[in-house]
Specification:
Structural class: alpha+beta
Strand order of the largest sheet: 2-7-8-5-4
Amino acid sequence: MLLPPKQASLLCSLALAILLLLLSFTPTASGKSVNDCSPSTFTDQTTRVSPLIEHCQKTADNIRDGGKWRVETLTARWHQILQYRSCAFSVYAVDNLAYFKIGNQDIIDLIGDAIRMFGRDGYVGANDTMNCQTTANWVNGVRWYIWYNE
């Protein structure tokens, strides 16, 4: 049975939207530490309204057994990929490519380094830029944020 062109077009648009949503940030279990990004620079954003250090430590602990994310950048540039209570971790592609990859060890290192460098009075907040892999290249400029979101 053939659909009328208008209905077929609507169905194709809906299928594409669902596919893009599923690919927007797809965690994949790996069972190991994965580094898909270069070392980062860091900017202190810690204030009394930053996430609690203990929540950020738990965020990192939750992905210690492995994982990597393929982050799509066509439908949205900002993606919150992790959160535990007050501590959220988000990424943003400065270069508007189709997607980039980030590994669990990249995130664990960013959170741990931010806590060591900027953690004070039980709070931590940080952001800055790193380069991450696509299929064969590096995305120049992936912004990351550790921020309060509860």
